[in-house]
Amino acid sequence: AWGECEHTLRHPRSVSGTRSGVVLAVGGFEIHRFNGNRWVHDHTSPHRLNGVYAFVYDGNNCAWAVGDNGYALYYDGTSWTDHSTGDTYHRNLMDVVAFGPDEAWAVGQKGAIYKYNGVWIDETWSDEVTLRGIGALSHNEIWVAGDGETILYYDGSNPWSKQHHGSTHLGGISAGGGNAVYAVGDDEKILYLDGSSWKDVS
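RESULT FIELD:
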């Protein structure tokens, strides 16, 4: 059953964990880690943080985090390192997903999509809507959700394509077990990917 766990993180925005038990949360300018009993401070950022993604790479618990003004940072299992996108428009990044230290995707305001492969590459979506969530089943199956009920899809080779749009703002998207992909948003909206089309299962 769900239980409440006290914390001192101001304005929590995102949480992510690995199967090996590492759980990280971001909010305000801080990153906190759950040590099995309580939340403890792990790192302070120069920019407000909005998203975090934890994963295991080469046996190490790693993570990417993103925030305001195009800011990003990477955790290698020992320490956090600044990997800012250098976004010239100072757009806030809202979410991130990653497959390793040299492969990550971040999304945010005004259609911001960044790909990291050692350097950040700007792949901004033309509609300039705020993109609030990103999820992936694999390197070649990545989805982004945002305002205007926007859902974008990337297959690893072709440019991003729009799979769905509507009137509701979507705040998050999750791709996981059993190849299930769900998006959620305002007005209790829940969308489910059924094959190649999205169905409202609110």
